[in-house]
Design a protein that fits this description.
five-stranded antiparallel β-sheet, alpha+beta, 10 strands, five-stranded mixed β-sheet, 2 domains, Jelly Rolls, disordered N terminus, Arc Repressor Mutant, subunit A
Length: 311
């Protein structure tokens, strides 16, 4: 139960900038390493003053949560952790916790690492390629027991590495194991996309219908060409998750699907009318006809006018 002072803070966002500050949130002693830490949830509980409070992270967080009666909030959504699942949070994202504790014997862990840990490494250059850091909380990764074990083993290696005496090899080995963990999670997400293939086909059909209705409702004249963000919002998915789902199912991401849809509509206009190219661009929702011509040439190898004259 919040005191009056705490209730006033519920709409604020509290910024947790360091690993040390995160340890304080969990009532833990100072971390062994300033830039990386493993929190075992069975040994830690979020302090009551941080329940129902929105907090932004200044670090990366990979959390593996087993069965619990509680939920976590992410943006405007919340997720029930009744199944074992994983979350991926990057700096700047906002999370809240409802205060319930896990009923599982092993409630899971959280791997925290500050951007400074990887800034000069190869992982620092490629971390944005792990698109699941931009997924919504409802798009969590669900693990098999064998997959959990593989990740648990890597977490143990990372924890042992920073708890022993630090030497010139420590940081490289810690980062290598974090990267390996992320690569395994990429594989497990691919497995999840594959095993949900029927659901993915349903999403693909809804996505294609969304594009058709967008133009039949004349939205392009007020909203411009449809964006991946718009499509994700309409389908209740994060843009990254939608794009990755389509890529796994069809080999083309969401932006490519949208571009291909536009090009096919453009071809129909070019062959079935004598409208100027600039008018066709406007009809499709492009603000500038040059932008339309550039995309058309990139996709077909010829300008709109050349395509029209060729046919």
């Amino acid at each position: 139960m919040f005191t009056p002072d705490n209730s006033k803070r519920m709409n604020e966002i509290f910024h947790i900038k360091t690993i040390s500050e995160m340890h304080d949130v969990f009532g833990l002693p100072k971390p062994k390493h300033p830039l990386v830490s493993i929190i075992q949830f069975k040994n830690a509980q979020i302090k009551p003053e941080y329940h129902h409070i929105r907090c932004s992270f200044g670090m990366y967080c990979i959390a593996q949560k087993n069965e619990t009666d509680g939920s976590m909030g992410y943006g405007r959504n919340s997720y029930d952790f009744q199944e074992g699942s994983m979350l991926f949070i990057k700096p700047g994202q906002v999370l809240s916790y409802d205060g319930h504790q896990s009923s599982a014997e092993d409630p899971g862990w959280a791997l925290l690492f500050h951007p400074d840990l990887i800034r000069k490494s190869e992982l620092g250059k490629t971390i944005e390629n792990y698109s699941f850091f931009s997924y919504d909380i409802t798009e969590a990764l669900h693990l098999s027991d064998e997959e959990k074990q593989s990740l648990d083993e890597l977490v143990v290696k990372i924890e042992k590495e920073y708890q022993q005496n630090i030497d010139r090899h420590s940081q490289k080995l810690i980062i290598s194991n974090i990267e390996l963990l992320l690569d395994y999670c990429t594989r497990y997400y691919d497995r999840q996309f594959y095993t949900r293939s029927n659901l993915n086909k349903d999403v693909l059909a809804k996505f294609e219908n969304l594009l058709r209705h967008y133009y039949s409702d004349k939205n392009q004249f007020t909203k411009g060409i449809p964006s991946v963000n718009y499509c994700g919002k309409e389908l209740n998915m994060s843009p990254k998750y939608l794009s990755d789902l389509l890529k796994k199912e069809t080999g083309r991401n969401a932006k490519t699907h949208i571009d291909d849809f536009l090009i096919n509509k453009a071809k129909n206009h070019l062959l079935r009318s004598t409208e100027p190219v600039s008018e066709i661009a406007y009809t499709l929702g492009f603000e500038y006809s040059q932008h339309f011509s550039k995309i058309f040439k990139a996709k077909t190898g010829m300008s709109p006018s050349e395509y029209r004259n060729l046919n």
